[in-house]
Amino acid sequence: MKEIIADKELVAYCGLYCGACGKYLKEKCPGCHKNEKASWCKVRLCAIQNNYSSCADCKMFGDVMECGKFNNFFSKMFKVLFKSDRNACIQTIKARGYDEFAINMAANKTMTLKVK
User: Fold this and answer.
1) pLDDT tens sequence across 75-84
2) CA pair distance 99, 56, nearest whole angstrom
C-alpha cells in the first residue's frame, strides 16, 4: 500500500485529494488526472478541455456551485453520503494554492474537507 504524501498532482479536478483515497493508496486507481477510465466524469472532461488543474482555475463561473457539471445530482449524493464539501476544497485551493492544499490534506489523511 502506498503512503499518503503531499503532492499537488494528486488534487482531483473536482477538488478531492486522491493522495488520501483508499483506491489510490491500494493502487486500484491512478488518481483523477491519470485515470483515463473516468471518461464518464463531466468535471474531469471540462477541466481537461479547458487546461485546468481543477475547478479552482475555472474562469467561466465566479462560484463553482453555479456550474451544472460540478454541482449535480451525483455530487449532492456524494456530499450527503460522505459529508464531503468539494466546494470548500475548491475555495481552499483558490485561497491557499495547490501545494498548501495538498500538504494540509496529506497531513490530515483525508481526501475531502467535511461538511460542517
Assistant:
1) 899 899 889 9
2) 13
